[in-house]
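Dear support,

Our group has been running a series of protein-ligand predictions, and this particular one with fe (ii) ion is the one our PI (initials K.S.) wants archived with full inputs and outputs. We had some confusion internally about which version of the output was final, so please treat the block below as the authoritative record. The input we submitted was:
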Amino acid sequence: MAPQRRAAPLWSGAVAYLELSLSLPSAKRSRGQQESRWRWLRALFLLASAAIGALLIWRYLGAEDGVTEVLAHRRENLQDKFIEIPCSEDYDSHKRFEGCTPRKCGRGVTDAVITREEAERIRRIAERGLSLGGSDGGASILDLHSGALSLGKHFVNLYRYFGDKIQDIFTEEDFALYRDVRQRIQQRIAQAFGINSSSMYLTKPTFFSRINSTEAKTTHDEYWHPHVDKVTYGSFDYTSLLYLSDYSEDFGGGRFVFMDAGSNKTIEPQAGRVSFFTSGSENLHRVEKVHWGTRYAITISFTCNPDHGIGDPVLT
Ligand SMILES: O=C(O)CCC(=O)C(=O)O
Ligand SMILES: [Fe+2]
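Confirmed final output from the archive:
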């Protein structure tokens, strides 16, 4: 049998150094010893600095704010994950709608409601719409209901700005797909919280988001702040997010984080993944800064108050 070659172990250099130093005359040997020791110390120092640097970068990119638990890993195929948590008192200061206003609160994630192919089709709608505008900073939105589209440091009304040309950009099928996806998410939320889906109403804002690593130019670009949707948006009772691109494949950073006392919980976006939760302060959350690439998502929100309900967007 041919002798097997073994890789030299890491410490073989130190052994060679020792053998060499023993075979030299003493004066030369001590100078040689000193130089070698310095060389070793320098190498050790460089190695330690590189390790500390790598550790700091890893902590900064992967574990901002001491994130401890991943609720939904990318590549995982979650059928239905639901975690019940006690409701905050936020709902008490609003008019209650029995059979809809949350009595059971919590958060869920599912990869089984929207397919990757459907998410990709919706992403193309978002790309088409957002290519007409875009914020100067890193966060752009497009609201198909109101027509609000980020442009530079402001917003324009897509429908007013582009008039009839809008028919060349979006099709009836795009809107039908949006409607279908919205309905299925609504039903999934109703089922998870034990309410009737017909007692929930779509509410505004409901919008596509496109986030990249460009530096923020206005406060509209600062998507990463911790917030409570019910406080930020008022009418929300149930929030859902449909992700349209993949964490660590299409973009880095940009994970969704529930900020619980003591331990944060993250959701890693994946095309077709739906995350949903009650909108009160039991679900304080934030989005990590996107470090590279482009992240697409859509926020679809529901209210229990029919006065705050809106219809599905229509191609005008
Ligand atoms: O895009 C996300 O993951 C979250 C967005 C969000 O928090 C919001 O729209 O209120
Ligand atoms: Fe939010």
